[in-house]
Design brief:
The chain is 43% helix and 15% strand. It has ten helices and eight strands.
């Protein structure tokens, strides 16, 4: 069974009583490979501590996203600039957002997303960068978000038909929306570029005190033999480094690498 490369999401653990340098150094010592969603002002510090940049937001405004034609010109420009940054800093994933429906039907929203992604995909392919549309729940955390189901996201990827356009499969969000996590991962992993974790309910520690069976999910992902990051995006209840260490060790132990 393949060892899983693990990352953590910066916004969840920053500003929780540990200095930035200590947090990055501590995460690297634990064994983390990368960090997601950290601001560019910290990128040099990330690199200095031997960590990679796993994924960053490719464009602005989660709610005003790819699904509306009025946003297309802005987002395309933002994505082209982000691709240049990604090449310079060796960032493999640019996270993209469908945006909220605001009354827009799912098929029209999908067509609008596909149109912009199709235009930008050749530049991403050339750069070796993946545009990963994040699947989020519209039930609790991101009300009215359009990209709230695996089926919709997979259809979007199929419509664009580019190796540079995939999905960010957020396990926490998809548990809330649809469940059936392991079978979905097995069936559609070819369209998933990246994974996020968190416990449900409450986006807490992905451990035995919440409803998602993460050890089984980790094993299912490892069994696929792919080199994709598993990024922990949960809110620690206490010391962030202790929480990160537990998440890392739980994941490693699940696939026999503890």
């Amino acid at each position: 069974m393949k060892k899983l490369r693990q990352a953590f999401s910066w916004w969840c653990v920053a500003n929780r009583g540990v200095e930035n340098a200590d947090l990055l150094a501590g995460a690297a010592k634990i064994g983390y490979a990368a960090v997601d969603l950290v601001g560019p002002e910290l990128w040099p510090l990330v690199k200095e501590n031997g960590l990679k940049l796993g994924a960053i937001a490719g464009h602005g405004t989660l709610t005003e996203g790819l699904n509306k034609k009025k946003n297309a010109q802005r987002i395309e420009a933002e994505l082209r600039a982000s691709i240049e940054q990604a090449v310079e800093w060796k960032i493999p994933i640019l996270i993209c957002f469908s945006g909220n429906r605001d009354g827009l039907d799912d098929e029209t929203g999908l067509e609008n997303c596909a149109a912009t992604l199709t235009r930008i995909a050749p530049a991403a392919e050339k750069a070796g960068v993946v545009l990963a549309v994040e699947l989020l729940n519209s039930k609790r955390d991101h009300e009215d978000y359009q990209g709230d189901s695996t089926a919709w996201g997979v259809r979007l990827c199929e419509r664009v038909n580019s190796p540079a356009v995939k999905l960010l499969y957020d396990i926490y969000h998809m548990q809330i929306m649809e469940g059936d996590l392991i079978e979905t991962i097995r069936r559609h992993h070819g369209q998933f570029a990246h994974y996020h974790t968190a416990g449900n309910p409450g986006r807490g520690q992905p451990d035995e005190n919440q409803e998602i069976n993460y050890p089984a999910i980790y094993r299912a992902i490892a069994a696929l033999g792919e080199d994709k990051l598993i990024c922990h995006e949960f809110l620690p209840a206490g010391d962030p480094l202790e929480a990160l260490e537990k998440a890392y060790k739980d994941c490693a132990a699940a696939v026999g690498k503890g």
